[in-house]
C-alpha cells in the first residue's frame, strides 16, 4: 500500500507512472488525506507530522510496518523491479542525507509540479486499486 499526497501534481504523475510499469498489479494506493491513511497514521503516532510518501507493509495486520520518505521511494523501486532496480544504488547514500534531499524536493514540489484542488479521481481501469477513491 502506498500513501501519497493526493493534491500534489508530481505525486499524482508518479502514481500514474507506477501504475504503467507495475507488472504485478498488486500495489494499492490511498491519498494521505483519506480515511485509510488517517487510520494508518493513528496506528503510528510518529507519522503525525509526516507529509511524505508512506509505504505500508501488511496494512492492518499485527506485523504492519511502514517506510517513509526516501525509504518508501526505494521500496517502490524495488517493487517495480526491472530497470528501476538500477536506481536502488541510491541505498549507498546514508539515509539521513537521502531524507534531507527528499525533504528539500518535497518543500518545492507544488511549485514544480502544481497542486490540484482535490485528489484526482483515478480512471475506471485502475479505480479498484485506490482506497477511498
UniProtKB/TrEMBL annotation:
One of its GO terms (molecular function) is protein-disulfide reductase activity. Coiled coil: none annotated. It holds the Pfam family DCC1-like. This is Thiol-disulfide oxidoreductase. It comes from Mycolicibacter hiberniae.
Amino acid at each position: 500500500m502506498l500513501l501519497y499526497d493526493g493534491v500534489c501534481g508530481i505525486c499524482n504523475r508518479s502514481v500514474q507512472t507506477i501504475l504503467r510499469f507495475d507488472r504485478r498489479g498488486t500495489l494499492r494506493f490511498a491519498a494521505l488525506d483519506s480515511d485509510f491513511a488517517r487510520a494508518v497514521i493513528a496506528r503510528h503516532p510518529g507519522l503525525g507530522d509526516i507529509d511524505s510518501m508512506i509505504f505500508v507493509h501488511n496494512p492492518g495486520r499485527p506485523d504492519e510496518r511502514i517506510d517513509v520518505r526516501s525509504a518508501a521511494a526505494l521500496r517502490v523501486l524495488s517493487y517495480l523491479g526491472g530497470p528501476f532496480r538500477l536506481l536502488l544504488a541510491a541505498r549507498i547514500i546514508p539515509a539521513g542525507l537521502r531524507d534531507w534531499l527528499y525533504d528539500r524536493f518535497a518543500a518545492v514540489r507544488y511549485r514544480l509540479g502544481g497542486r490540484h484542488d482535490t485528489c484526482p479521481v483515478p480512471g475506471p481501469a485502475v479505480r479498484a486499486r485506490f482506497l477511498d477513491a
